[in-house]
Amino acid sequence: MRLALVVLLLAGGVARAQPAESAERADDAFDVMNLLSRRGLHDLNDEWWNVYGQVTWIEQGKLPFHAAYTNFGGSTSSLSTAYENSFTGSFTIFSGLRLWPGAELYFAPEAISEQPLSNLHGLGGVIQNFELQKGGTPTPTVYYSRLYVQQTLGFGGERQTVTSNPGALGKHQDARRVVVSFGRFSVLDFFDKNSYASDLRREDFDMAFMTYAAYDFVADTRGYTWGAVAELYFDDWSARFMRAAPPKHPNQTELDFRFWDAYGDQLELEHDHVIAGQPGAVRVLGYHNHETMGNFTDAILAFQADPTRSAAGCEAAGLIHYSSTNPNAPDLCWVRKPNDKYGIGINIEQAIAKDLGVFMRAMYADGQTEVYAFTPTDRSFSIGALARGARWCRRKDYAGVAFAANGISQEHVNYLKLGGIDGFIGDGKLNPGTETVTEAFYGANLTSSIWLSGDYEFIVHPAFNADRGPVHVFGARLHAEF
Question: Is the pTM higher than 0.90?
Answer without folding.
Answer: yes
